[in-house]
Amino acid sequence: MDIIEKATEILDQGFVVGMPTETVYGLAARIDRPAGIESIFKVKERPFFDPLIVHVASLDQARALTTDWSSGAQALAQAFWPGPLTLVLPKSSFVNSMITSGLETVGIRMPNHPLALELIRAVGVPLAAPSANKFGRTSPTRADHVQEEFKNENVLVIDGGPCQVGLESTVLSLHFSQSERKYQLAILREGAISRAQIEKIMLEQNLPFQFQENPSKRESPGQMKHHYMPKIPLIIIQPDRDLSKVKEELKQKISELPDQIEGVTLIRPTQLDVFYELTLPRDPVLAARELYQRLREGGQSQADVIYFRLMPEVHTPEWAALRDRLFKAASLVLG
Ligand code: TXA
Ligand code: MG
Question: How much is the pTM?
Fold first, then answer.
């Protein structure tokens, strides 16, 4: 039996499987198996208020999940699927409320990974999948990250190699306002597809639109202040800071370092001797591919803390998604 058949069987039985995608690895369950959906939350230790993304292998599957497959949704799906864009649309009755955390909308995307698409086709039903990490922790970009994360839960992981994108999809909510006669768009999470790319498609297709600048917490329930955190604190420092001065400053602030953030436990250092420098390529595409692997390496090293020098690139629009992840993963930002 090959791995796809084996995974299909496990999913049929209402359990979860580690699935490769181009962004990060997901922890997948069939949307029509409530036991499977429940075990995603259990295995991940994820709170029930944070909704799951549903993964499809065809536009027909996507259409069946929503009551409003508009021309806007069609244009964006055509432009970016399979790929790292999640569309948040009104849910149909095929999607149960555990998946959407009680919201009337559902996040849908078609992943750009041959094994993910093969798995969804073999199962014949869309798969709900959050990133395959424990809640609040660094997302996995390699099969062995998932093995390591769930070593106690005995999860089958399909090895699809290192993720090519390395950061989660852009989450975009979209609805056509009849009164204003235009699409209301809101980026609920930054990702590989930029706002400029989305705008370009809407303009090319002559679809009137407007971006909502600060989506409310209700619309974007999974957006915590902290997330993606390595096991030891990540400290962001200014690029020109002298490391020995940083060490001095940190020693004063060691008691300010939390041992828990938003319910996620961190190892608070008792000493500040060994520093692990997180360095990233200047090219944001390459940096995205490496970020989570590097955060994991730092977390598993003998270091007391990880530090990252805030290089000037980080402030550019191309770094928007990376910037979001770095600041959410950080325990402290030194001025
Ligand atoms: O790239 C990705 O999106 C990866 C791969 C596995 O596909 N998945 C992923 O899932 O990152 P997760 O659960 O870690 O993050 C999903 C995000 C959460 O912030 C959640 O709140 C948001 O998407 N989301 C999902 N459904 C939503 C909805 N109906 N309304 C608003 N936000 C939603
Ligand atoms: Mg996640």
Answer: 0.95
